[in-house]
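ingest -> validate -> predict -> emit
validate: passed (alphabet ok, no gaps, 589 aa)
predict: started
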Amino acid sequence: MYRDHNCGELNIKNVGEEVTLAGWVQKIRNLGSMVFIDLRDQFGITQVVISADNNSIDKTVLEKIVTECVVGVKGTVIERSNKNTKIPTGEIEIDAKQIQILGKCKNVLPFEINSEKAGEVKEDLRLEYRFLDLRNEKLHNTILLRSEIMKTIRRKMDELGFTEIQTPILANSSPEGARDFLVPSRLHPGEFYALPQAPQQFKQLLMVSGFDKYYQIAPCFRDEDPRADRAPGEFYQLDFEMSFAEQEDVLKVLAEIFTTVFKTHTNWKVDEAPFIKIPYLEAMEKYGSDKPDLRNPLIIQDVTEIFKNVEFNAFKDKTVKAIVVENGAEQGRKFFDSMTEFAVEETGAKGLAWVKVDNENVLSGGISKFINEDVQSALKEKIGMKENTAVFFMADEFKTVQKIAGAIRIELGNRLDLLEKNVYRLCYIVDFPMYELSDEGKIDFNHNPFSMPQGGMEALITKDPLDILAYQYDVVCNGYEVASGAVRNHDPELMVKAFEIAGYSEKEVETRFGALYNAFQYGTPPHAGAAPGLDRMVMLVADSKNIREVIAFPKNKKARDLLMRAPSTVSSEQLRDVHIKIVKESENK
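emit:
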């Protein structure tokens, strides 16, 4: 046995005991007459002391011990003379009688692991040596936290009567909003599997199969560009589905999941269920985003009508939005200039108009010369532009100005430190549009193509597609979309019609979604479900700003795995097995 205790459990009650420990050398302090070693494992740190006159220790072995090598120690627990109250083992140390190197380590590390400078190391270097990076106490504990959250989720889903079922990884290609990862088939030349963007079709088939409530912590694969809150390539979600369920049934389950996870693993304040519901269009109007951070008190307001007859070219024939900042008049000119710079460089805005009102109701700066008494009075009545406030104005075509205003709102909230602290603010975003216009100007699905349209077949036949709403919903927490779901379209005729509007023929539906199309002919219960994102959930609980910090082996910003060196080239034999030939770009010209 390499150890009979871990490095975090011994205390003053163990004094006098003979023990065996094993772990990594975190720190070595050689004082000549004494050598002190901080021995670390997953559970904590224990100090080991070796006196110069200790003849039972092989001094040649001691000379080879370096930071981060793995050693085994046998010795006696003794009371420390200089106690360390910062760690649980700080009252004792191990008087070593025997020490051996169990795992050698190079003398020079690529970076210091548990130093205060660990955060300054370039991320790509950390990812290349992720096995070392994961020894960092904060990161290590985050991965352990992820494991505990998964246990909590499984307990809650079991408590709610859900059955855990695994679905395939090698699946078919499906239009779910992102590019597929394709896997060529060796046995079927020219044909491909696709890694599932989500277990969508399988979980619906499970409902058709008579399972009442399904869940799994499922890996999902999407060929998307990475962001701080989105891992490239793959992610995990708590995927669940319920038979004979409506939207409200799913929203209740989502509330149970999030309140349980947050209350179990943090001491922050958590919004109580039921969370507030915000229709999609209202969210875009008030927050400029369908994932609003409700910790931010700023609201976007429409002032287009007020400026309709004002001779200001920047607002002419534009949608005009405004954000009022309480006590904003206290900010200096440098602040307003920097916000204008942000608007232009980060949001693509042509500029950022502003005005501030002093304590005597006098306007100054920005566009104050274009605001006469009537306009000022109207702004005071409609949006609350009063003494000691600042107002920021944005103008552009409708959809563009919404996005610009949303980004300005977030930036103002952060720069002015307006966000509530230590709180999880949750809401449901509901009533998503069923369809949207693609970049090519064609009708396409806005969200999940398997969703039930509000109004059913009548809506699909009689309404403009862009006016049709769907029973689709998201959960948003602190500015992050943390879950997405929908009531499913379980009627084959409705399904065909919904896809027809998006440009798919019945034959294409039957070909691409043959399993669902066929299954729906044989008695399908109404069903609904959702999928909270595990990575983002852990990110919020860990109070991390980067999703790569909550994943054991993430890819970098360019979607490369620097540790395993993926993606990589493969041999011509491997390509031949799957009937693939690489054609260089120059050969295509």
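The mean pLDDT is 94.
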